[in-house]
Amino acid sequence: MSERAEQEKQLIEWLSDMREDEAIALANRMLLEEKANPLRVLEVCRMAMDIVGQRFSQGEYFLPELVLAGEMLEKIGAVAKPLIRHSDGPAQRKLARVLIGTVHGDLHDIGKNIVTFMLDINGFEVKDIGVDVPVQTFLEEISGFQPDVVGLSGFLTLAFDSMKETIGAIEAAGARERLKIMIGGGQIDETVRAYAGADAFGRNAVDAVSLCKNWAAAA
What we know:
- It is a single chain.
- The chain is of the alpha/beta class.
- The chain has 2 domains: about 5-90, Methyltransferase, Methionine Synthase (B12-binding Domains), Chain A, domain 1 (Orthogonal Bundle); about 95-219, Cobalamin-binding domain (Rossmann fold, 3-Layer(aba) Sandwich).
- It is about 60% helix and about 10% strand.
- It has a 5-stranded parallel β-sheet with strand order 2-1-3-4-5, sandwiched between helices.
- Helix 5 (about 110-120) links the parallel strand 1 (about 95-100) and strand 2 (about 125-130).
- The longest helix is centred in the middle third of the chain and has 26 residues, at about 65-90.
- The chain is globular and about 50 Å long.
- The protein starts with a helix and ends with a helix.
- The model has no long low-confidence stretch (mean pLDDT about 90).
């Protein structure tokens, strides 16, 4: 195993075990001293957060661990995001507006935060409205922000019903036809997409960016 692969394995272990100081120090060394690809470092963080989510679902972790996991990602993201901008350069013209949030009943935000990062640096105007977002809040934000795309995130299986409820409310409000809806997180697949009534699903942040770019180009 290469040295970088060993580092990535160690970072996943420390993040998922809530060893904050060691994980942050390693991530910063990889990003700032060794010039690791910041997108890859964020992807490694996502892998670790998948483990955190599994432990939460199994009752091994609780809300404090989820909060700490989010704080660790924020700290690493604060270092990684400027490096992504520096290497790729921000787009001058916003491609489209994207509203994104984790549906009600779910507090996971790791994947959502990475998608927000990626959309931002790829030239989209993104509004992240947080976690455990009520249906009514989505409707109000759609009315005020006027997005072209709405992203619904959720890791827990109970989020599937919340996604379906949210999309149903958007349709009932008469806003469904003028925007695209994508979903992602956890065990999302084509069956869940069809159940929820979304236009598409993404397995990761790269998928989300590709979907939004394709929709923006077709608009």
